[in-house]
Amino acid sequence: MDQAAGRLAEQGGRMTPVRRRTLEILLESHRAMGAYEVLDRLAAEGFGHQPPVAYRALEFLVDHGLAHRLQRLNAFAACLHPGHDHAPAFLICRTCGTLAELPAAPVRSALADLAAETGFAVERVTIEALGLCPACAEARTGAGA
């Protein structure tokens, strides 16, 4: 958390109590969370119950590289590599919601090369793969045996 606050200070931002708690909630979950799910937790702890409370904190964290927005799920997750300028790929378990963050540079580079061959200029890429985490895959295999 101190590293996150330091990163914000370098960028001219400030880690307010609601932003800090929002980041802590994301870090504790180990999965993507919707804004209303975060809002419920914030409200239960006395941070307010209006949607802008959560949305402002989440967008601030995304804008400052401390969280990611997952388009497919319309949800947010803590960045596992803050301080590194990156746009990762995500593996999302469709059963339990576990989230894995992976480096996506090789995939992005290959896609940019292929697009360039057609004259297309890629401006933004979101890589989100849906599947089963090892635990859920094993449970599914074990249940079928």
Structure characterization notes:
With 145 residues, the protein is α+β, with helices and mostly antiparallel strands. The chain has 2 domains: 1-81, Orthogonal Bundle (Arc Repressor Mutant, subunit A), CATH 1.10.10; 86-145, Ferric-uptake regulator, C-terminal dimerisarion domain (Dna Ligase, domain 1), CATH 3.30.1490.190. The protein is built from 6 helices and 5 strands. The protein has helices at residues 2-10, 17-29, 35-44, 51-63, 105-117, 134-144; strands at 67-70, 75-78, 89-93, 99-102, 127-131. The strands form 2 sheets. A 3-stranded mixed beta sheet has the order 4-3-5, with no helix packed on it. Strand 1 (67-70) and strand 2 form a beta hairpin. Helix 2 crosses helix 4 (51-63) and helix 3 crosses helix 4. The chain is globular and about 50 Å long. 21% of the residues are buried. Keywords: Cytoplasm, DNA-binding, Iron, Metal-binding, Repressor, Transcription, Transcription regulation, Zinc. Homodimer.
In short:
By secondary structure, this protein is of the alpha+beta class. Helix content is 48%, strand content 15%.
Q: Report the mean per-residue pLDDT as an integer.
A: 89
Percentage of residues in strands: 15-25%
* Distinct helical segment count: 6
Can you write the helix and strand succession as a string? HHHHEEEEHEH
Largest sheet report: 3 strands, mixed
Features of the shown structure:
145 residues; alpha+beta; Arc Repressor Mutant, subunit A; Dna Ligase, domain 1; 2 domains; 3-stranded mixed β-sheet; two-stranded antiparallel ribbon; 48% helix; globular; cytoplasm
